Each structure stands twice: as C-alpha cells, then as structure tokens.
Prior knowledge:
The protein is α/β, with parallel strands linked by helices. Helices cover about 35% and strands about 15% of the residues.
Amino acid sequence: xxxxxxxxxxxxxxxxxxxxxxxxxxxxxxxxxxxxxxxxxxxxxxxxxxxxxxxxxxxxxxxxxxxxxxxxxxxxxxxxxxxxxxxxxxxxxxxxxxxxxxxxxxxxxxxxxxxxxxxxxxxxxxxxxxxxxxxxxxxxxxxxxxxxxxxxxxxxxxxxxxxxxxxxxxxxxxxxxxxxxxxxxxxxxxxxxxxxxxxxxxxxxxxxxxxxxxxxxxxxxxxxxxxxxxxxxxxxxxxxxxxxxxxxxxxxxxxxxxxxxxxxxxxxxxxxxxxxxxxxxxxxxxxxxxxxxxxxxxxxxxxxxxxxxxxxxxxxxxxxxxxxxxxxxx
Length: 330
C-alpha cells in the first residue's frame, strides 16, 4: 500500500532555490523523507537536481567553492569528479568507501544498510569517466542518475535488503573499474543478488521515452516490467542483448545483472557519442528524469523485497537485438 504523496506545498518548498550549483535540496530531501516508509520513492526524483549534477559533471558549472571539471577522461578531471561525488554523498550522510585498484583507477561506493539486518545486497552503479570530453551523455547522465537514486533512497523506509551505490572508474578503457569491483565482491563472498547499471540516458529524439533493458538476467526483465506497471510509469521498455558496459563485468563474475540505456540498439541514440560535442546542451532532461524514476523504483522495490512476478519464459540474450560499444586503449 502506498503512502500519501508529499503535499504540493511541501514539494514547492523543497524545489525552491534548486539552483545549478546548490547542494541544499539534497539535504532537504533527506530531512523531509527521513524515517518514512515511502514506497513511491521515484516521486522524489528531481529533474532540477539532475540538471545541477550534470552541469557540474559536464564542466558547464564549477564545483561549488572550486573550479569546473575540465574533462572526466583526464586524471585531473576524474580526481575532481571523485572529490565532487564524495562531497555530495557526505552531505547526504553517507560514508564513502574508496576502491583504489591500481595507480590510475579508483572506484567509489556507499552502502545504504537495510533497516532489518541481512547479508543480501542490491548494487546500482554507473561509470564516471569519459573519453577526454565533457561526456555529458556518456556517462554524465548515468552518474547523475545514480547520485539521484542515492538521494531519494535515503528516505525509503522498511528496507529489507542492503543497497550498494557505486561509481566505476576507467570503463572507457575496457570496464577496468567495474571488473575490479566485481572481482573484489566475489572474493569477499558478498551476497549481491542483482546488479543494475546505467550508461547513456540523455537522448530521445522521438520523445517516446523508451528505455532499453540490456541483458536482463534471471527474472530482471519481468521485474522491470512489473515495476513499470505497478508504479504507473508507463515507459516503453525494450529488451536488448547490448553489452560492452559495466553490467558485463559483474555478470562475468557470476552476479545477475542488467543494464539500462537509451535506444542504443534501437537507433534513437546520441549522434555525439565519443565526440567533443557530447555536451550538456544536448541532453533531454525530461527523458533522463523519467528513466531515473524507473531505476529508483526498481531498486527501491528490491530493497523492500517486493516479490517478483510469476516468471515468464526465460529466453537467452542472443535472441534479442544488440550493439556493442567501443573502448579506448590506454
């Protein structure tokens, strides 16, 4: 049973002053939702916060109190990106964990522990690096969506499953960061029952809001369709076999995984892929917000252990269309 949504008056106070560089709305969201069992968690997703976050990640606006990120494909840009993410996450009350897996690479993640003790985890993540460009779509959109999920999940009560929220480094060099995290969690024996990654979610030229669901393992295809229907999101979902992004790394280590993307295989995808022109101005923020709501709703339901629907026929990934991405060498 869903609780009554926040009143328009409270929502208006929350959104007021949601400037490009302001971090205050995140703290306000945590205060307003703290301790509530708020199953419609996706209603807290803010397009304005997504715009503010991506503005910083894409170098359009400076980090509050600092300078603008030059490019997230450079060592300096990735260092500044980590510093920015850490500052926001700590302002939300998270304890940030760093995984420095080699001299040039460091992942970040936080844990949102269940309200009831458990050893089960769900992981949601995105890669934070780019290819020596602004990387607004690839993958500033995914990084911003995951930070937004971290923000709204703070207010989700009655959590029966722990959540890991992660940002992977060096994806563009061949999933190096996500492979390092997947191997580490496997070696630790961490019981991660599903992994959800998001990569490129800012282009929707036909305005149909379609989200591609990439290589959904186990019952994840059925689960996303259930969530989409139950939460009234009404997004067209298309299953694909696309890989070459972070969900592949976790699957290779034995974890059930899924990826979310714009219509990469379907052809309605950014024409600025891996180009200097992949900038903030090209992003469809209405589409990014609606897709982020889907991700938040799915991870939120999994955190509350909402039962999966009856399983449909489990079809192999290769039966569905797909398209690979291109990696850059060191």
